[in-house]
Amino acid sequence: MLHGFVLVLSLICFSGYGQSLYPSAANAHSHNDYEQSSPFWLAWKHGFGSVEADIFLDNDELIVTHDKKQILRRWTLDSFYLQPLQQCITANKEYVYTDTSRHLQLMIDMKSDAISTLNKLVEKLKSYPSLINCSSLRIVISGNRPAASSFSDWPEWIRFDGVLQQEYSEKELEKIDMLSDNFAHYSSWKGEGELPEKEKQVLQDMINKTHRLNKKIRFWNAPDNPYSWKVFIELGIDYINTDHIETLSSFLKTYKKKIF
């Protein structure tokens, strides 16, 4: 009975930084979403709370790709994310989802020069007023970011993904929506067997520290399977990083039923 109470209490704490009373697709992050069979739309269909698009600035165009070798595909940020988002917001009367309580974080991981790429992104987004004025959409910048001291110089609708172990001033934190880091910096666990207690405590300390700042937390390069998802939920990680959209979505629905 006590164990059940503790688990429910942990989920209540988890929900304080997520978007529901229990872990749901709102707490799921589609890693390198553009590599999915249906970029944007698959994560949107499953109600994900966050999608990731890596971009390069090439010939004055924002190309969605993880590395320079793939630039030749000419996948654009417009066609993969900005235009679909505009369609959704128009169809749902200024909301990303039909369920107006749901929110979406578009995390843009900049792979080319921070200043020139972000300047181009700001210019591009200004041509999509429905996106920058949408109350249920957050644009969060990761990867190559400008210096934290300049965060406040960027438009109000540009937010940032902070580095978990970096210290920020109160002013800088006002522009930061979440803190992220490489899971391997804290644990060598591969999502099989028990998470070593010492590593678990290190992770828990970082999660608690982030939550005390009233920020969300995400780990990339983390184990990505049902057992690891369960552990991450119990730890209180706000965004579960995944390449397996449909499997994680099903897992979260089943998890919800077990809890309630």
Written description of the protein model:
By secondary structure, this protein is α/β, with parallel strands linked by helices. The protein has one domain (8-259): TIM Barrel. It has nine helices and nine strands. Strands 1, 2, 3, 4, 5, 6, 7, 8 and 9 form a nine-stranded mixed β-sheet that branches. The longest helix has 16 residues, at 197-212. Mean pLDDT is 92; it is low at 1-21.
Q: How do the helices and strands line up, and which of them pair or pack?
A:
Layout: H1 2-15, E1 28-30, H2 41-45, E2 50-58, E3 61-64, H3 77-91, E4 104-110, H4 114-125, H5 129-132, E5 137-143, E6 158-163, H6 170-173, E7 176-182, H7 197-212, E8 216-220, H8 226-235, E9 240-242, H9 245-259
Parallel strand pairs: 1-2, 1-9, 2-4, 4-5, 5-6, 6-7, 7-8
Antiparallel strand pairs: 2-3
Compact overview of the structure:
The protein has 260 residues and is α/β, with parallel strands linked by helices. It has helices at 2-15, 41-45, 77-91, 114-125, 129-132, 170-173, 197-212, 226-235, 245-259; strands at residues 28-30, 50-58, 61-64, 104-110, 137-143, 158-163, 176-182, 216-220, 240-242.
